[in-house]
Design goal:
This protein is of the alpha+beta class and 587 residues long. 40% of the residues lie in helices and 22% in strands. The radius of gyration is 25 Å and the shape is globular. Bound molecules: adenosine monophosphate. The site of adenosine monophosphate has 12 residues, from strand 4.
């Protein structure tokens, strides 16, 4: 398959924001993709060279991209940079300059999808002396062979900034349309699906659910697509959860009060402490224990103490546990705040020393697999019973989360106060009949924590400082996550960062170094950055404001820390901002 076929699809996807139209474009295209290319195509459609759980990154900065465009076009880096400033998009510059050279030299051989994919996969392995040069030349060679707008999409893929709006739900539906022959009629003019009758609607829902369930279990759309194409729903139904392969975690929505949280999930509700630690997904497969973070990174090596606790106190031979790891002070036994233990996630040496200094208690709140049986579709209250039978409570090692079931708001509020007094963040309200929906932010699990405390926001732009702050990025535009998964600006912040390394907290210099590889464009002192670095901010108040895309602004925002455990996908949502805003106004 030619890369230009994929480029045509990128263009069609970019040309519309309508989800059904995107689904239609994708499903038509998927039907033309040969089976042995499906895996590559599905990853490339989402701008990736590796599946989501594979943490390898291409490591290609915009500086390298400028070099690659210069090599491919035969222009100087200065010309490329100037042209970038003028056009505002390095991808467009690549099309323009490389295209000009090609006209002169008449290169006509088109790139293939395989070539692009295999080349991208080689990038992370290029390390050591001369690797920058090799990387640049490799990408320049691809750019030189791209036709049409190919160079632009290629460059965006290399920079990991390709966003043509293929969300999970869209891809799921496109796979259904392409391979499972649903009895539907997509009316392009009305942008609507038409069903012959109610039963065909139900049949259609069953098909999308089959695709969704398969994806929830294997976490890999390429595998799902190939299976759907080869064996239809019967084969999809055989895709099972596998110990050792992480699944996406279920996320919570937010309410401002216990009363609202309990009303949302329905009475009687389960309430649990909301621990201030970090999420751990623990797989036990006989004597093999594997630990993943909420970003699905394998961190087993960093937590031998957790592995030991699971081996010693989890009675099941095989199971999958959803947990929060909480740090405590070895001397006083008191819970410590998240930042204390966050260093354990990254540390690859002196692990034994660190585990003594920063010990951890594993609070287990869910069980998704037990002795060969998947529990995702079992009601929460039943999962909880199984959990209590599986985990022996050994305080300061591993325990089941603190848990009550009640229909009394007064009792719920008492539990909330006790949770806060014990140093927790708040409580989680959970519906007793809730199923486990990997990757979804569900309304049947709702967090309640004091509002107006903090937000996790991603940096999307910044300004170079002046005077004694020159050389540092100083003022940061931050964004929350919109309803469509897009990033919407909500304010600017510069306060909270320190100038001197000796001071406690994060410095301008550190944040500048973190952001530098993600610069996308520069205009004078203003820079646009790839949404990658997440700040936790405190603020005085949320205001309605037309100045920012979210419709809200933060008064007196202050950076508390960099949340390097957090994906940009997992930041504060617009819905959460709305809830906090309305609560603050007493509505
Ligand atoms: P937030 O990070 O504010 O979106 O809140 C959701 C997170 O709370 C989850 O991802 C877990 O890491 C954490 N958490 C702490 N205690 C619990 C609990 N009892 N049940 C579920 N999640 C919990």
């Amino acid at each position: 398959m030619h890369y230009s076929d994929l480029v045509t699809v990128y263009e069609a996807l970019e040309a519309t924001s309508k989800r059904l139209e995107k689904t239609h474009v994708l499903s038509e295209f998927l039907q033309t993709v040969p089976e042995n290319e499906l895996e590559k195509v599905i990853l490339l459609l989402r701008g990736r060279a590796f599946p989501p759980w594979d943490k390898r990154t291409l490591g290609f900065s915009s500086k390298l991209a400028v070099k690659a465009v210069a090599v491919a076009s035969g222009e100087s880096e200065k010309t490329v940079t100037e042209s970038w400033k003028k056009e505002g998009d390095l991808g467009k510059v690549a099309v323009l300059l490389v295209g000009k050279k090609k006209q002169a030299t008449l290169v006509s051989q088109d790139l293939t999808v395989r070539e692009v994919f295999e080349t991208l996969q080689k990038l992370p392995g290029m390390e050591g002396l001369g690797s920058t040069d090799r990387k640049t030349k490799t990408i320049a060679a691809l750019l030189g062979h791209a036709t049409g707008n190919g160079a632009m999409f290629l460059l965006r893929t290399v920079l990991e900034t390709l966003r043509v709006g293929v969300a999970d739900g869209t891809l799921r539906d496109a796979i259904t349309w392409a391979y499972l022959q649903p009895q539907i009629n997509y009316n392009m003019e009305k942008n609507d699906i038409e069903f012959a009758d109610d039963s065909s609607r139900e049949d259609y829902n069953k098909l999308t659910e089959a695709v969704q369930k398969a994806y929830d279990r294997c976490n890999d759309f390429s595998h799902v697509a190939v299976t759907a194409k080869e064996g239809g729903t019967a084969a999809l139904g055989k895709i099972a959860l596998e110990l050792g392969t992480p699944i996406r975690v279920m996320l919570a929505q937010r309410e401002a009060t216990v009363e609202a949280g309990m009303a949302r999930v329905g009475a009687p509700a389960a309430l649990e402490y909301k621990y201030d630690g970090f999420r751990m997904q623990v797989h036990k497969d006989g004597s093999k224990v594997t630990i993943f973070t909420r970003r699905l990174e394998n961190v087993t090596m960093q937590f031998p103490d957790v592995v030991d606790a699971v081996k010693a106190h989890v009675t099941a031979k095989t199971c999958l546990l959803d947990c929060e790891a909480v740090g405590y002070d070895a001397a006083t036994g008191k819970y410590t705040a998240f930042q204390q233990i966050s260093q354990r996630i990254r540390r690859k040496y002196d692990i034994d020393k660190l585990k003594k200094k920063l010990p951890i208690e594993l609070n287990v709140f869910d069980i998704l697999y037990l002795e060969g049986e998947e529990l995702l579709d079992m009601p929460f209250s039943e999962r909880r019973k199984k959990l209590e039978k599986t985990v022996k409570n050994v305080p300061k090692a591993i325990v089941c989360s603190s848990y009550i079931v009640t229909d009394s708001v007064a009792e719920g509020e008492k539990f909330y106060k006790a949770a806060l007094a014990a140093g927790n963040e708040g409580v989680m309200c959970k519906a007793l009949d809730g199923l486990y929906k990997p990757g979804s932010r569900v309304g049947h699990m709702v967090k309640v924590k004091p509002v107006l405390d903090t937000m996790d926001l991603v940096v999307v732009a910044a300004e170079w400082g002046e005077g004694k702050r020159s050389g540092w990025l100083t003022s940061f535009t931050v964004a929350c996550k919109g309803d469509e998964g897009d990033f919407l600006t909500i304010g600017k912040v510069g306060t909270g960062l320190k100038e001197l390394e000796q001071e406690d907290g994060v410095t301008f210099n550190q944040v500048t170094e973190l952001l530098k590889p993600h610069l996308l464009s520069e205009d004078g002192r203003d820079v646009v950055v790839k949404p990658q670095i997440v700040f936790e901010l405190a603020f005085e108040e949320i205001q309605a404001s037309p100045s920012y895309e979210s419709g809200y602004a933060l008064r007196f925002p202050r950076v508390l820390r960099v949340r390097d455990d957090r994906d940009p996908e997992e930041i504060t949502t617009l819905e959460e901002v709305r809830v906090a805003y309305e609560h603050q106004r007493g509505r």
